[in-house]
């Protein structure tokens, strides 16, 4: 492609609304342009990157017998209402009404549509297993679109769905897809980790996220350096008691390291704590470590109140609470509801004497001795609080967020944190959708059985920005060769110079003849502009035809390392071919 004819509108100024480096670079390098908040046009360079990403995905999907289809983006409400997700998705779903008053949604995902399709077309075990996939635009009405393509309202996604006869077949399909995803991201040249995760609104029993490691990632990963355990912090398991400590509800230590169960129980006492609301303020006034404060968080679970107790130095994990309670909606109660239930405002709520409200607690709360909690009266707290003696917990469990330094649930080594950008997710759905929509088949004996499903997604448009966030320098983008829009950026410094132009045109024709994708900068621009644009665009190999052409030499530059080599013109093609093989 001759750059003089290409739509590559590079920018010198950093866009004011671009919050992260990758977003700024994609705008500056002429890859994308914003049409509305969270809605982008992919310009020719981005389109070439997307096509290469999609080709890798298609090859790996086809290799596990996936079949590509295209489903409607416009989906009738009845399908979503049948599975209960019409309400579950809430304001994230873009809903509309046609001229006849029928409700539709612009699809955020396609579990309902694919299940209805297979239900109507597949009746016998002989047609299973089955894997179908598509690459299509999805729509989600994000409350706050941000970070460019990382959180948009319209995005390109590969979604695949497996249908199997039984659990054994679903397990094979799931792990075949998992391995395919590993190959996809490895081929793309991405540094990533596969982590255990929560299924969220998709549902299902087992799932993994594929996370590109990057400092701006909105997800935090807990990982073990001693084994291969890794999980999203929402999913990461907390071991209780920690490895090396006693079993049972006891065995925990306070901030000083002393075993809490060794303390003799103190009498329960109500004390004045005027104006004290936060854990830190409470601990300072009472002379206690924050680990001896019982934090009480009031939620409405499908409208019913529930109090979750955690230690003051821990945070409630709402995902774990929701999953343990088996509810569809979990939201924090507002102050008016809290006062109606407990007779006190936030900060002064406690479990002692509470009736008709479900109380659940993290395991670590059960190990506390002589702790402090709210007295259900403004400006009052209890001290000398001992769980079991002073209040009853309906259910103990793992209800807190993992913290860096907690022990790995697999091997006991310390956990570390890293930030990640989710680019893929695989789910075991089981019969969640097939049961709701009647997707059944007849087995070998003629018995009717529900199909078992899996759902598998890759954020294709998100991938390209995640790669840029991971692979750039102060001068611009550095594309992995597998995703680069072109293989070679051929730059002629002065098109008016006959020797330079003649050599560059010859190289351009020869490289195209070899099947390489070449961006030929034949513009009438200053050399500095061309070099800056080349680094900004980020093609892996630059071939520069400049003043040295008079001596029969050209220059090649590897974008990632900035290494430059001067090569005699007769050896140029051989050198370029060799370097391109090395870069792959």
Question: Could you please describe the fold and organization of this structure?
Answer:
The structure is a single chain. The chain contains 15 helices and 31 strands. Strand 27 (488-492), helix 13 and strand 28 form a beta-alpha-beta unit. It has three domains: 3-237 and 417-468, BirA Bifunctional Protein, domain 2 (2-Layer Sandwich), CATH 3.30.930.10; 260-397, YbaK protein (Alpha-Beta Complex), CATH 3.90.960.10; 486-583, Anticodon-binding domain (Rossmann fold, 3-Layer(aba) Sandwich), CATH 3.40.50. Helix 2 (44-63) runs antiparallel to helix 6 and helix 2 packs across helix 12. It has 584 residues and is of the alpha+beta class. The strands form eight sheets. Strands 3, 7, 8, 9, 10, 11, 12, 21 and 24 form a nine-stranded mixed beta sheet that branches. It has a five-stranded mixed beta sheet with strand order 16-14-15-17-20. A five-stranded mixed beta sheet has the order 28-27-29-30-31, with helices on both faces.
List the helices and strands and how they pair.
Elements: H1 21-28, E1 32-36, E2 39-42, H2 44-63, E3 67-68, E4 74-76, H3 77-83, H4 85-88, E5 94-97, E6 103-106, H5 111-121, E7 130-139, E8 154-164, H6 167-187, E9 192-196, E10 206-213, E11 219-224, E12 230-232, E13 269-272, H7 279-286, E14 294-301, E15 304-311, H8 318-325, E16 330-332, H9 335-342, E17 358-362, H10 363-366, E18 371-374, E19 380-385, E20 395-397, E21 415-430, H11 432-437, E22 440-442, E23 448-450, E24 452-459, H12 460-470, E25 472-473, E26 476-477, E27 488-492, H13 498-513, E28 518-521, H14 527-537, E29 541-545, E30 553-558, E31 564-568, H15 572-583
